[in-house]
Amino acid sequence: MRNLIIVGSGPAGLTAALYAGRANLNPLVISGPLPGGLLTQTSEIENFPGFPDAINGYELMAKMQEQAQKFNVEFLSETIESAELKAGGPQILHLSSGETLECRALIVAAGSSPRWLGLSSEESFKNRGVSACATCDGAFYRGLPVVVVGGGDSAMEEACFLTRFASEVTVIHRRDRLRASKIMAERAEKNPKIKFVWNAVVSEIYGGSDVDGIKVKDVQTGEEKSIPCKGVFVALGHLPNTRPFAGQLAMDESGYIELCGNTSATSVDGVFGAGDCADKRYRQAITAAGMGARAAIDAERWLES
User: Fold this and answer.
1) Is the predicted pLDDT of residue 43 greater than 70, yes or no?
2) Which residues are catalytic?
3) How many whole angstroms separate alpha carbon 206 and alpha carbon 277?
């Protein structure tokens, strides 16, 4: 049985691993389906302290993992299928490979995943014109028109990034104003290659071998119209990756892990939460890292007691 297992390898999981490794807990990090987390899909990060000239998201996560590995942190490229949690432990994790792991303390830093539109046509065109990652796929649309669906910071970041490649970027938003922060909204609104379609939702994505356009529906009048495009980038936020722990940890209605007071403790004694799977308010790399540090300190003290 291991002292500590950390589920997730984003900023929260890797910071928890660093702190736990330095505390001689020899933690095991289960990397999950996307090693390094969603930050690996971000091009330039300008707001992580210590990098005044910005840093690529993949590079930042590689540096975090390299730092953690200096302190006897082990990594396992696996995903959790289900878990058996009980107060005081042992905590049992069932992996997709069929293997079972046990630990005394557990940190859940599983992050989140993109929220999709839920259209059958969207599913049909995934990887053929529909994407949730502009930094991954934007270069494929050089000189072509694309659409971004959403109105938050992530949508504006995607839209601004895509102007490097696309001939034009059309933002589809179901409201009449953006939800994004002021600086991100202004950056997008001032970009001559970005235009907006307000009070509209995507009702269909159409095309042949790949995407040729979308149909949008006005939420006030019900009127539909077509917008030609070759790429559709969905930026509607994210869902916490907490399914394997559903019914065992206290969560809110959206599936975010509920923490006890100003700590990382969950509803199960010996299980701690950190990062985007437990934070629906801030969801920033730096706050996730801070939560990871907090979870490792809480887990260390819990193991000692």
Assistant:
1) no
2) 133, 136-137
3) 34
